[in-house]
């Protein structure tokens, strides 16, 4: 269930209240006349089941309330209310299947910022994975996947494509296109430093690495794993069930490949660097294709149900 807090110009409040009153999926309506100061206006609050979220928000946006007032959305984790249950029963479809587009656009839009934190986290993840590649230690690869933050920009790119948001797509591509090269460069430098300290050497990369060789040897499973990771990631986002494990699932196909690129470039093992590069781009493409298809299917299915 969603909680809406609307700041409405007084002239529009009656229309807002009428809209929310007749909407079967809205309940717990509260009005505070003249309570808002910046922007000035009336405060209207209500709960809306996720199934009714898109039509309600579309009507509020059509009234330009997001420009002349304010619309805030929060998720309600628990609602003990018979009225709320009746609203859920009256709305078509199931809450788990509902995609609230304004919500996911806001979420993913925040993940496209090319911030210092994002670059640092991606760099640390790739460095850890680079050490795991040289030591042939899957536990380090898994640790790196926990740290990797690339799920946000990838999800934003998928949403931007489906919603035709050119600005979101540009920002997501910038975050990915700048983030990965910087992370790879940092991992190359780290590998050189470790080599100077005598902690790693080229032979560690050239030896048999049965536990991590798959990272630079792309095959059909590279696409399959990336594709299903993209589906799982997008479903977790649209159903508001995104968690750290989904980020790990996305990173299993990206961060290790970037790390192997760095290690191979650091030691001039060009065939392995090329294989890792193909693996990285293949997985990124699979995730984006799967994410876009998932969103399109969800939109089609929801419109059909409604």
UniProtKB/TrEMBL annotation:
Highest rank taxon of the organism: Bacteria
Keyword Cell division: no
Annotated Pfam families: DUF389
Keywords associated with the record: Membrane, Transmembrane, Transmembrane helix
Residue spans crossing the bilayer: 116-135, 141-162, 174-200, 220-238, 245-268, 280-302
PANTHER family assigned: AT15442P-RELATED (PTHR20992)
Protein name as annotated: Integral membrane protein
Organism: Dactylosporangium sucinum
Lineage of the species this protein comes from: Bacteria, Bacillati, Actinomycetota, Actinomycetes, Micromonosporales
